[in-house]
# Entry
Amino acid sequence: MPDVLKLDIEENAAIDTWFGIGGQADRLARPVNIDELRQCLRIDPNLKIMGDGANLLVADGGVRELVASLERLNDAEIGGDGLVRAEAGVDLPRLVLDTVRAGLEGLHTLAGVPATIGGAIAMNAGGKYGEVFDHLVEVTTLDRNGQLRTEPVSAFEAGYRDGGLNGRIAVEAVFQLNPGDASNIRERFKTIMAEKKHSQPMGERCAGCVFKNPVLSEAINGIGSANERVGAGLLIDRAGCKGLTVGGASVSERHANFMVVDKDRATAADVIELIGRVQAIVRERFGVKLATEVIIWGRP
# Structure
């Protein structure tokens, strides 16, 4: 087993998120294999795992726990039979595009979803066209004791924005896709991307959807029926929150479930306060409590 001291750990390291704001990691490691990831767990069992930072906000005070970026666990194999194997650090948009070009149907429904494979599995990332677990057949995880397990997807109780990992770290996944007509798959991919570019602030500094889509406990006129999952963005929009601003952070005018930041002026505290204001307004207007989809790390 490699010596713990050989693991390269950066101190006071920047945490690269899509927001581009927030504090640093007291310690950050970039393991290149499972043994090094195990070393990270031995150093700090409360280790925080990150992919490309698409769904992450780091508080201005930074993160005390050891942070492990899985960016170097990035091997992927695409078979002509539709079997796709990918490590946790593989970029999901890149893998989606590669499978589309290979004429494989399935992951194209995740066009425009920002994530790495590991993070996408942890939160069962997706949208109205599909979720990551739709085509997963097998996941390899590492638990906090360093035990590696490879299990069929049926072993995980995945739900809405929850992969059912229960604290385990996804390190590799296997998908089964369907060979199909490449031109047709490519056109469907382009259609989804065009829709997202039109409806979401993809060119601005943001981090995907801020809130999970809630299930209504009772009907709300013009929004949805009791027990129906409705768009958080619709509730935020109808509550009049588009354009609401705190410091350098604001609710997007294009899509109300996105918050955009001015990197030169915004702080993580601005975003956190804005999240709280939106939650309070929506709860007062509709009686609905919005839960965050974006993950917040660290100390204020």
Remarks:
- The chain has six helices and 18 strands.
- The first helix runs from residue 34 to 43.
- The helical segments are 34-43, 92-101, 117-122, 182-199, 232-238, 268-286.
